[in-house]
């Protein structure tokens, strides 16, 4: 797989990799957060119904929280992009000469000679003035603003898919081995998400995998320890 800044394919290739990376990180969050939760409860009780209830509640609460957070953040980003585009539209309508000079200036900065930049700017203004300014001046693709709903739904599902791994391991494994089965399943899953996120980002995978596995293992160890303490005190 090529790094995200590969030349050809430009925007759509990078955008796809960004989505893929977000999905992998969302699944990673779901794995670690739910693993910590069910391990905490498993430290306190062997009651299967309590474990299943905690795991399902954790999956749903986490997925909804991720979706809501993503919706808010992408909405804010889109609002600010829309405001910038509106301002640009207004400037193009009220001072087209200044905007033409501005565009020519941006093209000169990219290496065109004054003469060529001026003619190119004129042609771009005639073809799609707002699109040219959005792209060169603001770095926004006006036809490709991210949808907050799409972002929310995708983080909801990626978190839920990740969360299913520790939840199913804890609920489906026989009672006497379920802690071990959960730890094992989670570490394998974290190996895979660590590997995938490194590959998507074009980074060497070994460190990403190690960080991910150590982080997840610590999360489970801490919550299991706390669950055991609390269970002993209250049980
Ligand atoms: Zn402009």
From TrEMBL:
Residue ranges of the TM segments: 49-72, 149-173, 179-201, 213-234
GO CC terms in record: endomembrane system
Superkingdom of origin: Bacteria
Gene Ontology MF term list: manganese ion transmembrane transporter activity
Membrane topology: Multi-pass membrane protein
Main location per the UniProt record: membrane
Keyword Transmembrane: yes
CDD domains associated with the record: Nodulin-21_like_1 (cd02432)
Keywords, ordered alphabetically: Membrane, Transmembrane, Transmembrane helix
InterPro entries: Ccc1_fam
Compartment list: Endomembrane system
BP GO terms, sorted: intracellular manganese ion homeostasis
PANTHER family named in the record: FE(2+)/MN(2+) TRANSPORTER PCL1
Name of the protein this chain belongs to: VIT family protein
Naturally occurring in which organism (per UniProt): Propioniciclava coleopterorum
């Amino acid at each position: 797989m090529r790094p995200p800044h590969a030349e050809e394919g430009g925007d759509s290739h990078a955008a796809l990799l960004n989505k893929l990376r977000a999905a992998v990180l969302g699944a990673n969050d779901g794995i670690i957060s739910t693993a910590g939760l069910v391990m905490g409860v498993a430290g306190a009780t062997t009651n299967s119904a309590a474990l299943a209830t905690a795991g399902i509640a954790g999956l749903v609460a986490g997925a909804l929280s991720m979706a809501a957070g993503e919706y808010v953040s992408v909405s804010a980003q889109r609002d600010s992009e829309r405001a910038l585009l509106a301002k640009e539209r207004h400037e193009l309508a009220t001072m087209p000469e200044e905007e033409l000079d501005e565009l020519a200036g941006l093209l000169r900065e990219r290496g065109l000679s004054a003469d060529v930049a001026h003619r190119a700017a004129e042609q771009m203004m005639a073809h799609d003035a707002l699109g040219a300014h959005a792209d060169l001046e603001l770095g926004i693709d006006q036809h490709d603003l991210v949808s907050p709903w799409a972002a929310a739904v995708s983080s909801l599902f990626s978190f839920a898919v990740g969360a299913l791994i520790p939840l199913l391991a804890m609920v489906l494994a026989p009672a006497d081995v379920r802690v071990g089965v959960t730890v094992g399943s989670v570490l394998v899953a974290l190996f895979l998400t660590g590997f995938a996120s490194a590959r998507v980002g074009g980074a060497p995978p070994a460190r990403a995998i190690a960080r991910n596995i150590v982080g997840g293992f610590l999360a489970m160890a801490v919550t299991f320890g706390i669950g055991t303490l609390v269970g002993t005190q209250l049980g």
